Structures are given as structure tokens and as C-alpha cells.
């Protein structure tokens, strides 16, 4: 998904002295898009407590987020459906008075410790917003319930393993809606009978869906590190953002360790999400790796220009008696600026080597489960989605502030 920012000039906000301010925008697009995200940078205005958004005179849900936890909102986001060449007029009201507008929940994120007193796997109750584990923790995979932070929107859900793999593991839904609060990634037989989804991918030591790894001629795990952290930044009607941080990763022998923060941004109504890696120094000359798992017997797709995916069927667990085989479609898009090379498929992965630009690296991921009553059910239709998805990523919305 594309990330859109508008920087308000300092003099513009300097004129603000009232409790409520109005910002007018025009939004246009070169291609038709549904639920296209618009994100406004509002850091310059220090006293925002609430906001409303109207698109062509119609109220739409919006979300204010404090991304750095300094007590001030940094960004406002909303979604819009827009046709090719259409121009939409947007009125944003920013206020230093706090009020609550009830928008339907469309994203969710959770992280929790295992509670030894709880026997049912979907009833754990020690909720966290952040955790840091020291390198002396011998088995970080077992510390957190469902092995790491989990996040979802109304279409897809996933978790990120809290270990050296940092793999993104997938949950497949049958019907649209939020489910993780109820199932905690461990769906009971009764919930399955009610139509809840479940884990649909076996990942092992593969990339799963788009894990970022090192590269030493082949993918290498994110280890050793001094500390490893996960954090939920936000979850609301528009988007959820979660982070994975690795401190003092000994990436290459003979070189100083690096610090890496991986930020995952998932918008409501999207089966795709963005991965943004930030490093503590310029790593433009370094290579990393990412890609998607080669699902057993999968059919591969590649446009040889950064877009790659597969469609395949496999068991999601070693227990073949209590699980059924699951069919998934996976996709990754690496923009030209960050792409080094597409490698031939191995039995485990479809691999890219990637390179940061300065201290930043970005790419995009998407998936579907054949279980969905709203998704894709053949390799042909999934690969067609991937092509259209790339087209939309390469044609971001055009957002202008009307002075």
C-alpha cells in the first residue's frame, strides 16, 4: 500500500490561533482506487486533540496517531474511493478540544504474555502494548502468546514471530470481520463451526510472507542481537501499525552492529500492507533479503520487475489429522529503488536481494486465502490482482493543500 504525506508549511500553521482550524485539500488519482489511504502530516500543529474529515461534503472516518509516543499527534489518516481523473474536495477540521466520534472498528492488534493459569488457548488475558527481550532469553518464541504481535483488518490477519526468524505467519478468514480478539490465533473447534478462520500457512525457517533477513550468499536470520522488541503503535478505524526492533544486530563479521526497526502498516479494507525498515546508519552498500515461501507445489508468478507471487496448497501444521490442507496466494512488490536482484526459486523461497537507500528500505506484501468468501480462488485471478495492485502502488494519490 502507498503511504501519502502532506507537509503543512510552518507559516500556514503559524496563522492558527483558534480552537478549531480548517484545512482544505484536493485529492486526485490517475487510476481508479477503492479505500485509498490519505495520510496528512500534522506534527507542526502541537495542540490537536480531535479531527473530522469531509470528502465531497460527506463525513468519513478518520484517525489521529501519535507515532513516536511523545504525547502529540503526528498524522491523520482517512480512506477514500476515487475514480480515474476524479478530483475530490476534502475539508479537515483540526481541533484542540477533545471529542469522540464513534467509527466502526476495522483494524485490531494484540500482544499478550502467556498466562499459565489459563488452559484454553484462546482465553489468555495479559495484554501488552510493547515488550523488549534481552539476548539472554533462551527461547523468545515461547514468551508471548501466539509467539508475537498479531494484527488484522476486516480482510486479513497475521502474526510476527518474536525470534530470529521474525516471520510473518498468516491467518485465513472465511468471512469479512475482525476475529483475533476472539480466537487469539488459536481457533477452537466450536469457533471453526461458527465460521471463524485459522492459521493457513506453515512457515518453518522460510520467509513466510516477506520476512526481512540478512544476506551472506543466502538468507540469514536476524541474529545475534542484544535486544529484540515488539510494539503496537496504533489500531483504529483506518489502520493498524506495529513495529519490530532489533538492537545491535551483528549483521556482518568485522563490522559494527546495526539497529533496525521494521514498521508494518495495514489499512482497513486492504489485503496488502507496507513494510518500512529504518536503520541507524547509511546501509546503501549493504544487501538484505526478502521474498515469499515456496508453498509446496506452488505456481510462480513474476513480472521480472519487482512483482512476484505464488499460488499453492500445503498443510499449515504437522498435524494432518486435525488440520486440512490450505490454499493461499502470496505476493510481494519491491520498488526499483530498493531492488537488487530476483533470484531463481529454491525449494523454500522465492527470493529478492534488496538494498536500503540511505537508512530506509520499503516494500509491499499481500495475500489471500482460498477460504475467503470475498477473495480469490484461482492462480489466474490472484495473479491478475497482483498486476493491478502494482499499478495502483505506482500511481499514488495526488494530494494538494489549498492555501
Automatic annotation (TrEMBL):
Keywords: Signal
Name of a matching Pfam family: DUF4861
Signal peptide: 1-19
Matching InterPro entries: DUF4861
Protein name, per record: DUF4861 domain-containing protein
Species for this entry: Hallella faecis
Amino acid at each position: 500500500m502507498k503511504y501519502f504525506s502532506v507537509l503543512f508549511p510552518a507559516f500556514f500553521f503559524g496563522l492558527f490561533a483558534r480552537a478549531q482550524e480548517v484545512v482544505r485539500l484536493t485529492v486526485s488519482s490517475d487510476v481508479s482506487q477503492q479505500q485509498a489511504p490519505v495520510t496528512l502530516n500534522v506534527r507542526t500543529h502541537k495542540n490537536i486533540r480531535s479531527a473530522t474529515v469531509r470528502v465531497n461534503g460527506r463525513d468519513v472516518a478518520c484517525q489521529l496517531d501519535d507515532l513516536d509516543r511523545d504525547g502529540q499527534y503526528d498524522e491523520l489518516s482517512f480512506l477514500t474511493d476515487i475514480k480515474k481523473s476524479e478530483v475530490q474536495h476534502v475539508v479537515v477540521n483540526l481541533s484542540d478540544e477533545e471529542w469522540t466520534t464513534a467509527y466502526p472498528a476495522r483494524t485490531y492488534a494484540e500482544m499478550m504474555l502467556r498466562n499459565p493459569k489459563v488452559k484454553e488457548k484462546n482465553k489468555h488475558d495479559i495484554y501488552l502494548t510493547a515488550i523488549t527481550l534481552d539476548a539472554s532469553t533462551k527461547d523468545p518464541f515461547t514468551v508471548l502468546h501466539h509467539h508475537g504481535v498479531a494484527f488484522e483488518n476486516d480482510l486479513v490477519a497475521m502474526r510476527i514471530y518474536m525470534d530470529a526468524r521474525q516471520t510473518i505467519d498468516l491467518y485465513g478468514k472465511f468471512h469479512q470481520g475482525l476475529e483475533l480478539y476472539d480466537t487469539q490465533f488459536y481457533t477452537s473447534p466450536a469457533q471453526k463451526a461458527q465460521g471463524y478462520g485459522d492459521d493457513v500457512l506453515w512457515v518453518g525457517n522460510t520467509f513466510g510472507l516477506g520476512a526481512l533477513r540478512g544476506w551472506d550468499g543466502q538468507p540469514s536470520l536476524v541474529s545475534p542481537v542484544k535486544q529484540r522488541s515488539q510494539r503496537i503503535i496504533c489500531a483504529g478505524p483506518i489502520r493498524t501499525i506495529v513495529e519490530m526492533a532489533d538492537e545491535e544486530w551483528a549483521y556482518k563479521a568485522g563490522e559494527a552492529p546495526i539497529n533496525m526497526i521494521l514498521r508494518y502498516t495495514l489499512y482497513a479494507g486492504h489485503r496488502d500492507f507496507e513494510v518500512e525498515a529504518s536503520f541507524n546508519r547509511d546501509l546503501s552498500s549493504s544487501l538484505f533479503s526478502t521474498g515469499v515461501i515456496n508453498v509446496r507445489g506452488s505456481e510462480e508468478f513474476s513480472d521480472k520487475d519487482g512483482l512476484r507471487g505464488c499460488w499453492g496448497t500445503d498443510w499449515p501444521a504437522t498435524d494432518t489429522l486435525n488440520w486440512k490442507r490450505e490454499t493461499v496466494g502470496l505476493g510481494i512488490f519491491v520498488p526499483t529503488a530498493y531492488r537488487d536482484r530476483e533470484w531463481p526459486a529454491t525449494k523454500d523461497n522465492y527470493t529478492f536481494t534488496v538494498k536500503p537507500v540511505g537508512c530506509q528500505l520499503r516494500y509491499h506484501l499481500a495475500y489471500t486465502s482460498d477460504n475467503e468468501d470475498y477473495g480469490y480462488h484461482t492462480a489466474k485471478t490472484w495473479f491478475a490482482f497482483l498486476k493491478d495492485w502494482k499499478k495502483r502502488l505506482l500511481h499514488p494519490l495526488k494530494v494538494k493543500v489549498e492555501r
